[in-house]
């Protein structure tokens, strides 16, 4: 399993002591749009996500993760961590905006709690700040994302469905945003409305 060419490589090193000796592992960070990746590479990413989510990653989830940018870390034995950034249109406290929406963030079980997810999210944050008015993601892991500058949206959630705005109360409290220099003044106690899509709308 090899990544394609790495035009924008950043290297991360993790040193461990074992039996008095230090071993150093090098990993490479890369990003590319879905349409720049080969079908074989995308199949490998899908397999990785299926394993990382322990079978809970659906075909709809995979469709949601495509069409934008992929960011991944690869080591000597393959993919370590991944995240996607796709464009969506949201209405946030009456402001209609193009947002960078984070999908399919996962780290292989053997590599968790080593900072790799943080590396992925920092790169996604850079892309959001460069391209969008706002970053948005759904999560239950608030403390992790808060440490990276994200904040919870406590206001009510909706989807702009076939019949207009419909409440999604099961998602209340689970949406987080990342402000950028282009973000308008937002009242996070107000409504947040996502565009319609098949599968999980948030």
Please provide a written account of the structure.
The chain is built from 4 helices and 11 strands. It has helices at 39-52, 59-64, 116-131, 142-146; strands spanning 10-18, 21-33, 69-75, 78-92, 95-107, 134-138, 151-153, 157-161, 164-167, 175-179, 192-195. Strands 1, 2, 3, 4, 5, 6, 7, 8, 9, 10 and 11 form an 11-stranded mixed β-sheet that branches. 31% of the residues are buried. The model is unreliable at 1-24 (pLDDT under 50).
Rounded to an integer in angstroms, the radius of gyration calculated over CA atoms is 18 Å
Span between termini: 32 Å
Dominant shape: globular
| Unreliable stretches covering 5 or more consecutive residues | 1-24
List keywords for this structure.
single chain, alpha+beta, disordered N terminus
SSE inventory with pairings:
Layout: E1 10-18, E2 21-33, H1 39-52, H2 59-64, E3 69-75, E4 78-92, E5 95-107, H3 116-131, E6 134-138, H4 142-146, E7 151-153, E8 157-161, E9 164-167, E10 175-179, E11 192-195
Parallel strand pairs: 5-6, 8-11
Antiparallel strand pairs: 1-2, 2-3, 3-4, 4-5, 4-11, 6-10, 7-10, 8-9
């Amino acid at each position: 399993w090899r990544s394609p060419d790495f035009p924008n490589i950043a290297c991360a090193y993790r040193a461990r002591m074992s039996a008095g000796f230090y071993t150093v592992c090098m990993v490479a960070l890369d990003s590319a749009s879905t349409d720049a990746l080969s079908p074989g590479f995308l199949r490998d990413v899908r397999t990785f996500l299926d394993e990382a989510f322990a079978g809970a990653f659906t075909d709809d989830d995979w469709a949601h993760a495509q069409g934008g940018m992929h960011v991944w870390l690869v080591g000597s034995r393959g993919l370590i961590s991944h995240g996607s950034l796709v464009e969506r249109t949201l209405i946030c406290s009456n402001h209609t905006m193009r947002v960078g929406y984070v999908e399919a963030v996962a780290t292989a079980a053997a590599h968790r709690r080593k900072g790799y997810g943080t590396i992925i999210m920092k790169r996604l944050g850079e892309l959001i700040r460069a391209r969008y008015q706002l970053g948005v993601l759904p999560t239950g892991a608030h403390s992790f994302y808060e440490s990276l500058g994200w904040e919870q949206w406590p206001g009510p959630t909706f989807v702009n469905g076939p019949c207009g705005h419909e409440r999604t109360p099961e998602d209340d409290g689970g949406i987080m945003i990342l402000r950028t220099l282009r973000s308008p003044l937002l009242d996070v106690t107000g409504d947040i409305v996502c565009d319609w899509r098949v599968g999980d709308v948030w």
